Amino acid sequence: MRWGSLKAICVGVPAVIDIGTGKIISAPLYGNWKDLNLKEILESEFNIPVYIENDVNLSALGEKHYGEGKNFKDFIFVEISNGIGAGIIIDNHLFRGSIGSAGEIGFTIINIENLGFKVKNKGFLEKFASVESIKKKAIREIR
Description:
Layout: E1 9-13, E2 16-18, E3 23-26, H1 38-46, E4 50-54, H2 55-66, E5 75-80, E6 84-90, E7 93-95, H3 126-129, H4 131-142
Parallel strand pairs: 1-4
Antiparallel strand pairs: 2-3, 5-6, 6-7
């Protein structure tokens, strides 16, 4: 593909995005990205329309249009990687919530008293169930 034939750019970011402006509102995994207007930067560089969206929301849309979600009007796509997030499809449409953070389930506070063991980092689901936290726990157990 030649750059001249490129019509638009879409970027999936592990963050809460202001969809109207393309500005990153919150990026816990990339703290220095907060308030970064990625849309503005890329549009000025490439001079074509740029769309910025949460990465897991894009995965949910991909499943809705091309994957296992094709036959469902409502579903939740959950991704567990460095963080934990969800893309929510309701009545065939992506649901972002009032501030764009509807799928940020990694920050759900869980009841740690019922885990059956003591923990240092109390609270967020992501502290216990992300790939990074599971990897750290496995390394501790091996040693």
